[in-house]
């Protein structure tokens, strides 16, 4: 019997490619840039499975143009780049890579919170530019982290991992808002208080966004929400860029209506709105939440496990739409 045909649409670790190639007829896109939509459609012809990352969009139109496709395995926990209902309607299985990146992404979230509160990027830029003249009492004085209120919008796995860092590492008061409330024992373990979104915005000293992106969360933090925040507060986004109205954020940062922001994700990434680059009170990182080698290897391995299991009669470990 001929081997099943799959497309590996982004660069992947050698071990993963070897595992997939041992079982499938693999078409491998090893370029640095993602395939364009047209290239993706062309290379998916006759393929039953595809390994993607967050940079490939799987739309209803693409699915209709690629009727052989049965499994979409994304090497990401987020799947807002995939039209999941369209996949389900066509009997296409979608899988993602949850859990293996939770702690690493929470680490980055906390690092960004610290860097933002303590003005680390601003300090480094100043030092490199020769602007460090002497020590003075209010030089680069930032915001306190320990003992303050950590607000978490979206209390899934990564939100809870952030709460543990805040509570047990920094003695912070944990407040959160989520579509559904956590069980009482989990709230107790995390010392987490459930608040309405409005109260969370008002009370947080540091607000971290960890909710999934969807039409419902598009610009969930914009002008009206920023207006509720404390002028001393920081906003951290490690979820998806589209959750924040970046123009409203830039205006709030410029007018000092909030103190600072740390962004790892952007609405038009990898393009970043020029206004964000001009503001001193913002720390910017290029979507590196899960970017450690062990975690990326684990994500790639899990994406391969999903593809292998789903196409060879097994049970995919982390399906999205079953
Ligand atoms: C994820 O896993 O969703 C990360 O944001 C990388 O895309």
Automatic annotation (TrEMBL):
GO molecular function, a single term: oxidoreductase activity
Residues of the D-isomer specific 2-hydroxyacid dehydrogenase catalytic domain: 6-321
Entry keyword Oxidoreductase: yes
Pfam families from the UniProt entry: 2-Hacid_dh, 2-Hacid_dh_C
Signal peptide: none
InterPro entries: D-isomer_2-hydroxyacid_DH (IPR050223), D-isomer_2_OHA_DH_cat_dom (IPR006139), D-isomer_DH_NAD-bd (IPR006140), NAD(P)-bd_dom_sf (IPR036291)
Enzyme type, top EC level: oxidoreductase
UniProt KW 4Fe-4S keyword: no
Residue span(s) of domain D-isomer specific 2-hydroxyacid dehydrogenase NAD-binding: 110-289
Keywords: Oxidoreductase
EC number(s) on file: 1.1.1.-
Family: Belongs to the D-isomer specific 2-hydroxyacid dehydrogenase family.
Descriptive protein name: 2-hydroxyacid dehydrogenase
């Amino acid at each position: 019997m001929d081997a099943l045909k799959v497309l590996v649409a982004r660069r992947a670790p050698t071990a993963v490619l070897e595992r997939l190639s041992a079982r499938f007829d693999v078409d491998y896109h090893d370029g640095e840039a993602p395939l364009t939509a047209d290239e993706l459609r062309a290379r998916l012809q006759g393929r039953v499975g595809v390994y993607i990352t967050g940079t490939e969009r799987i739309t209803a139109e693409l699915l209709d143009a690629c009727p052989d496709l049965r499994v979409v395995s994304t090497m990401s926990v987020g799947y807002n780049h995939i039209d999941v209902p369209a996949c389900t309607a066509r009997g296409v299985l979608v899988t993602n890579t949850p859990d293996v990146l939770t702690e690493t992404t929470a680490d980055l979230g906390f690092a960004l919170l610290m860097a933002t509160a303590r003005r680390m990027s601003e300090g480094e830029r100043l030092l490199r530019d020769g602007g460090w003249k002497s020590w003075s009492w209010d030089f680069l004085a930032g915001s306190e982290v320990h003992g303050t209120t950590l607000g978490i919008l979206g209390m899934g796995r990564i939100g809870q991992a952030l709460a543990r860092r805040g509570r047990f590492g920094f003695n912070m008061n944990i407040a959160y808002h989520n579509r559904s409330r956590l069980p009482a024992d989990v709230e107790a373990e995390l010392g987490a208080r459930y608040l309405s979104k409005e109260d969370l915005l008002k009370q947080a000293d540091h607000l971290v966004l960890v909710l999934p992106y969807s039409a419902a969360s598009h610009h969930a933090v914009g002008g009206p929400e920023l207006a509720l925040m404390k002028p001393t507060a920081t906003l951290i986004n490690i979820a998806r860029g589209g959750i924040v109205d970046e123009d409203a954020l830039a205006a709030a940062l410029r007018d000092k209506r909030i103190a600072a922001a740390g962004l790892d994700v952007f609405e038009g990434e990898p393009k970043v709105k020029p206004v964000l680059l001009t503001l001193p009170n913002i720390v910017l990182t290029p979507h590196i939440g899960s970017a450690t080698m062990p975690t990326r290897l684990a994500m790639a391995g899990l994406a391969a496990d999903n593809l292998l299991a789903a196409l060879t009669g097994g049970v995919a470990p982390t399906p999205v739409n079953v």
